Amino acid sequence: PALLEPLFPPQPGASPGFAERVRQHKVRLEWVRAEPAGLRGAVRVLNLAYEKVVSVRYSLDGWASCAEAPAAYQPPAPPDGITDRFAFLLPLGDAAAAAETALEFAVRYRVAGAEYWDNNEGKNYRLRGRPRIPQDPDSSAWIHFI
């Protein structure tokens, strides 16, 4: 099976100024991780109202078609007191196993009659499939000489 490789830093939330970017843009991707079940990640949003909807719109075919996955609120709230965290899983199924996979996504935040997007400064978040290199089961074995 292939491995999805982010073409952006996979931990934007760890970069300097992240909290300020959330305040300014209202929504920002915090991190992503490729897993056998799909792409898992977290989003940070500015807490503008109690009711909010966060989702991830994604495509595997250059936006000829797309799907949207909901993100779920993750308690407890971050300690900054002004943001909330939402988690998502993009279920990619067999598509994630193909080495030629190219995944693009953007995050949507709807709150108080407004809609905010994080699309990686207009470039979308992109990941590409990369073939896994099969490992020799003996490659990590130690050789002991007596």
From TrEMBL:
<dbReference type="InterPro" id="IPR050782">
    <property type="entry name" value="PP1_regulatory_subunit_3"/>
</dbReference>
<protein>
    <submittedName>
        <fullName>PPR3E phosphatase</fullName>
    </submittedName>
</protein>
<dbReference type="GO" id="GO:0000164">
    <property type="term" value="C:protein phosphatase type 1 complex"/>
</dbReference>
<dbReference type="GO" id="GO:0005979">
    <property type="term" value="P:regulation of glycogen biosynthetic process"/>
</dbReference>
<dbReference type="Pfam" id="PF03370">
    <property type="entry name" value="CBM_21"/>
</dbReference>
<feature type="domain" description="CBM21">
    <location>
        <begin position="19"/>
        <end position="128"/>
    </location>
</feature>
<dbReference type="InterPro" id="IPR005036">
    <property type="entry name" value="CBM21_dom"/>
</dbReference>
<dbReference type="GO" id="GO:2001069">
    <property type="term" value="F:glycogen binding"/>
</dbReference>
<dbReference type="InterPro" id="IPR038175">
    <property type="entry name" value="CBM21_dom_sf"/>
</dbReference>
<dbReference type="GO" id="GO:0008157">
    <property type="term" value="F:protein phosphatase 1 binding"/>
</dbReference>
